[in-house]
Amino acid sequence: MYISLSTRRQSSRLALLATSLGFVLICLDVTVVNVALARIRASLAIGSTELEWVVNAYTLAFASLLLTAGSLADRFGARLIFVCGFAVFTGASIGCGLSADATVLVTSRGLQGVGAALCVPSSLALLGAAFPDAHARAKAVSIWAGTAALALGAGPLVGGVLVERFGWSSIFLINVPIGIVGIWLTLAHAPDTVRHEARCIDLAGQLLAVVALSVLTYAVVESGRRGWTSAPVMTGLVAAVVAAAAFVVIEGRRVQPLLPLALFRNAVLNVCSITGLTLNFGYYGLMFAMSLFFQNACHYTPLETGIAFLPMTAVVTVANVVSGRLTARFGYRLPLVVGQSLAALGYALLAFLRADSSALAIALPLLAVGTGVALAVPSINTAVLAHVDSASIGIASGVLNTARQVGGVVGVGVFGSLVRPESSDVASGLHVAVMLAFTMTLLSLLTVRLGVAKRASSVDAGAS
User: Membrane spanning segments where (predicted)?
Assistant: First the structure.
């Protein structure tokens, strides 16, 4: 059957809309929940440890399954996996919105993370199939990534408005109609991808990865309530090390491993993974802690909290554009160094924050952190693209994104163990947390100087 060029173009645009809707919801849920934490805590009568799990259950499932989700999309087709992921995410959002206790909410958040992990790799594959022309595909990917950046930036403000007007359940239930539209658009307009039925799924590697990340997260989250030297926390840390060691051994023996260990011979990938982990550690940890600080120490409403986050989140899109232009002209090392330096400055300034600090004293450090992180993130992606073999870009991207998500999980756990909403002095815990982020950022800057100092030419950046 003949299909006109205009019809194909319209289907491609609608496929882009579908994948963008999925990515928007996934990114929105990373930040939108932070402004609802105080209302969730009061409504469900839960403690700070459960609040950390509300945030981390999502990110943990997302981080654990990203690599396997890419393999599933290769084997069974990107459209099927994307629709399944979108359906799981939408159904889990209903569970979140109707939760009457912490157990149901945390479980539903974990299922949201499963759906998100299934959607992200397959959405990129769908864009590749919908836009076979390289120029059109690059433009489509730019739009797809841009909508995600806008979602991340708008998350706290959108969450504040929804929580203030309709209650905390609304930040989850609003996903449902959008999810239904996205699934319909995908089935109606997104082309399927070639299925590689010979691709094996590394179940043992996946299981060990989930175990290692889960027990590590458990140990970090529980440290605030039980203490770092308590038996459950120490057991969790030891179990994480054992599971990680077993993962390395098994992956070294696999013909088709979940994570080819040979990738880690690439110094630039190692440095970028460390940097990505550090960036998310500070950014997501700070969002969690500052939400508690704003609502418990400063007594802000959810809407006021969302507005207070704007200096940190609203600059994401602009800083991403600036980072791309700096990279094209000077190479990726400049925005990487400048970005981390700005973030470090922001963390240092936050160490002087008090409940009665002026709006400017709050906004300037958050602006520095938000701008710095947004400048640095595109440059680590550019560096990986420039220094990883084309046949390994997919898995290398998976490694980088997994490292970033793990950083976010650990960041929320560590910041949450230091900033307790039931404490009479939330600011003191915040000061310790931001100085830890400051120290880690400086160490990351050192690895950048050692690992990519001679590999950051503008030619590489432009080629990417």
Answer: 54-73, 80-100, 112-131, 143-162, 168-188, 200-221, 233-250, 262-286, 306-322, 334-353, 359-386, 398-418, 430-448
Same domain, 238 and 136: no
275 and 222 in one domain?
no
Q: Do 209 and 193 belong together in one domain?
A: no
CA separation (Å) from 159 to 104, 131, 169, 295, 351? 21, 33, 10, 14, 26
Reply yes or no on whether the pLDDT at 1 is more than 60.
no
Does 310 map to a domain? yes
Structural domain count of the chain: 3
> Considering only 7-21, 99-113, 188-202, 293-307, which range has the smallest mean pLDDT?
188-202
Which CATH number covers residue 279? 1.20.1250.20
Mean pLDDT for the chain? 82
Q: 393-418 and 203-226 are packed helices; what angle lies between their axes, rounded to 10 degrees?
A: 20
State the Cα–Cα distance between residues 448 and 251, nearest whole angstrom: 27
Claim to verify: residue 325 and residue 448 sit in the same structural domain: yes
Three-state DSSP class for residue 131: coil
Within a domain: 65: yes
Strand, coil or helix: 77 = coil
**151 and 209 belong to one structural domain:** no
Claim to verify: residue 237 and residue 356 sit in the same structural domain: no
CA distances from 420 to 49, 111, 163, 259, 346 (A): 9, 26, 22, 36, 22
Instruction: Say if residue 346 is in the same domain as residue 446.
Output: yes
Distance CA 85, CA 76 (A): 13
User: Which residue stretches of 254-358 are H helix?
Assistant: 267-292, 302-308, 310-313, 316-330, 333-350
Q: What is the pLDDT of residues 392-450, one digit of tens each?
A: 666 777 788 788 888 888 888 888 888 876 666 778 888 999 999 999 999 998 888 77
Query: What's the pLDDT at 365?
Result: 93
How many Å is the maximal CA-CA distance in the chain? 70
Residue 261 covered by a domain: no
Q: Determine the structural domain holding residue 321 and report its residue range.
A: 266-464
Which residues, at least 6 apart from 414, have a Cβ–Cβ distance to it below 8 Å? 220, 281, 285, 433, 436
How many other C-beta atoms can be found within 10 angstroms of the C-beta atom of residue 459?
9
Work out the average pLDDT over 136-159. 76
Band the pLDDT of 350: cuts 50, 70, 90. Answer: very high
HSE-CB of 249 using CA atoms within 13 angstroms: 7
> What letter would DSSP give residue 228?
T
